[in-house]
Amino acid sequence: MTLKYRGTYGLYPWFPDDDETLIHANDLQKVKAFSINGLYGYVFYCSDENADFIELSYGDFTFKVKPDLYSTIPSIQFHLGEHVAVIGVSEKKGVIVSIKWHSKYSKPMYFLSFNGRKSSRRYFDTELVEYYD
């Protein structure tokens, strides 16, 4: 068996009305609880694969799916939980709390938390720099 997804980032545009057999039976309920709107738009990391399923993760949330809907994207620069600073804005430092895919621009969008409060503004990787506290 040739492994082709392990170690990649990608999208899995599954919606609750889609075929439930695409999600591993042991993970279906937790996937539904993760987002009532499905998995569309989230950037996942493929941490494992076998003949039938791939394992995707989003931070600490992991689940298995059939690879049918999975499409890879280029590696991302920042990751969930990472501390970053906004370029050109002194003292604006936060933590990445969500990573989604901008379909029009075909690149990741990062959502941050500043001082424990989630910001509604999205940031692209060109607007952020890694920050060590």
Automatic annotation (TrEMBL):
It comes from the Bacteria. It holds the Pfam family DUF6960. InterPro entries: DUF6960 (IPR053804). This is Uncharacterized protein.
